[in-house]
Write a structure and sequence with these properties.
mainly alpha
């Protein structure tokens, strides 16, 4: 089993093991950064260690995004990830079993952590995520190309399946790159806390197109107004793409 570098690597790995959708993983990072912001500005000591916080954000985010996972489903692989054997030892990894006093203790700890996180969030679990806006922004950015040719978007599902046609623009390479970059953007403290999700989503689309050599022919300000439907502040957009280019 590969070793973990940090809590972010742990969160990514656990989300993969749990087969969580991108929406749940992105929301877990948004919760994490909201929590960190709260305790950075609070005189109260942070009660959660980074790995317990990771577990709690995944637990709450999976429920908030309608992809709930049982606590046992979270704790068993999490324990295995955190207690994988060191390359320098031949000892077998520790195994968490149910029932056991250790499992009961870990479960109680996670339940308490969930309550702490919920209080920090003010029990407001629906926080706008960049993933909510990605598809519409990418479709608008690519509409001149999408509207030429076969019109695959109009084909029914059976025809798409027969000819091996992807279900939509988000399933293509650019769409997948946008989703991956949007999830990574949610890991960033500044992007998660200081900018509207719309601005982050539009910045993601712009940077991905830029990285793939797809030149924006409009002026940047005009493009932001057009694709963002006038709802994204240009100064926010400039700061977002600056951060994205550095990450």
């Amino acid at each position: 089993m590969p070793s973990l570098r940090d809590p972010i690597a742990f969160t990514d790995a656990l989300a993969d093991v749990l087969r969580l959708p991108d929406e749940a993983l992105a929301m877990s990072y948004i919760y994490m950064n909201k929590y960190l912001r709260f305790y950075r500005s609070s005189a109260t000591p942070d009660p959660l260690d980074p790995y317990t916080l990771s577990l709690s954000t995944i637990s709450i985010a999976s429920k908030a995004t309608e992809s709930p996972r049982r606590l046992s489903s979270i704790l068993l692989p999490a324990h295995a990830l955190l207690h994988s054997p060191s390359p320098s030892t031949s000892k077998p990894p520790k195994t968490l079993t149910i029932p056991s006093p250790l499992y009961d203790t870990l479960r109680a700890t996670l339940v308490q952590a969930d309550l702490i996180l919920l209080r920090v969030l003010g029990f407001q679990l629906h926080i706008p995520s960049p993933l909510e806006y990605l598809q519409r922004y990418l479709e608008r950015a690519m509409e001149d190309i999408e509207n030429v040719g076969e019109g695959f978007n109009e084909w029914d599902r059976e025809a798409k399946d027969e000819y091996g046609i992807l279900s939509g623009i988000m399933e293509g390479r650019v769409g997948r790159s946008c989703r991956a970059k949007a999830v990574d953007a949610c890991k960033n403290y500044e992007l998660a806390n200081l900018f509207p999700a719309r601005a982050v989503a539009l910045g993601v689309v712009y940077v991905v197109l830029e990285e793939r050599g797809l030149k924006i022919e409009l002026g940047v300000r005009e493009w932001v107004k057009d694709v963002g439907s006038g709802k994204v502040d240009s100064e926010d957009f400039d700061e977002v793409i600056d951060i994205l280019r550095k990450t």
